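As a warm-up, study this chain.
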Amino acid sequence: MLLKLGVRNLKHNKLMNLLTVLQMSATFIILISMISTVISRFTYYIPVKEFLDKKGNFYTVFNVINPDTGVTLRSTDEIYKLLGGEKEITAQYNVWLKYEKGEKTDRFISYDDKYAEIFTPELECGHWFKTDSTVHETIPVVVSQNDYGLKPGDIINLSCFDNKVKGEIIGVLREDTKIFLFPDNFDAKVDFRTFYRNYSYEREESVLFLMQQKDLLDKQIIMQLNGNVMINYPDSISDEIIENDVRKMKSLNTLRFESSDKMKKNSIEFILSQINGVLPVFICIVILTLVGSASISALSARHQLKNYAVYYICGLKWMNCAWVNFFSSLLCVSASLFLSIGGIFVLQINGLLKNTVIELGFFQISGCIAVSLLYIGFSMILPMRIIGKNTPNQILKSN
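Now compare it with the structure written out below.
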């Protein structure tokens, strides 16, 4: 009964309710955009968070030579032998390979399992490495955008001087996506962003081939430690051992060094600075919209007082008239939610939001529901105050 009366109220106040729906739809779209912006600031921090939470050091090294053998340093096992002690080492490498149909500018990079496991870049097609799989005879390869027409399932011939191996394309990177790669900006503060680099085939004019280091170690291929290296230690390890490791690593052509504690501090400062830039704007917009929408609801309740008096004469309890207004507000906010979330969903599945950070997820939808409850609460309180200050007799006599 109250729901039917709420629907009737909507029909009697078409203009006001249309304004409410449009206003709340705009609020939800802004809210989803703001929450997506905040979440995006954590997107690339979370994969490397476990590195930064532990005691350790970050290094950027360049074409490292093993001082014991005089040849390229080609695996974390060799780093363990150089440093000794208990530690976790994660690194990336240059691979001396050539694609038979490729150019001299092609680049071949390999990752230790940990790098491949904690972060999956955006792919145009195919899939990322399966880190729990065994070593492959045919090397799984993820390739950047290219003019070679390479696609998932293609078998390619690779060579390291006279040694021939085969690779299988399992995925193609999206253009200008972030990957773990040798950094291109050494002036920036060292934080979580230092692990990543945006790779664009069009900008780099070079096709990038990514591989897993474990698939190369049993083959006659030359690899060389090059890029970002993370060394983590157990909490019980002494500062003396860490300092000794730092001295040895700095002797291996290290271009940049930072402790995990300092990187974490820099990362949190950057994220908070980004959030602080949008949070005040977001709060002001939501408050203004909520107040405006609730005011429209209050005006609607005042406009409907004569109808409420008629409902009272017909047997409806006076304070139950506020529930009629509640159902009207509930229908309005439901329509707004449907329009805003449905609109963003359609844009998202059609790829029109791929160059933005806007997306639908648990936090975005939860935020919309929370704002809806606040709006409904305001829409209930104000009409109840208006109705409570009047009696049916007063309203009927005044009309």
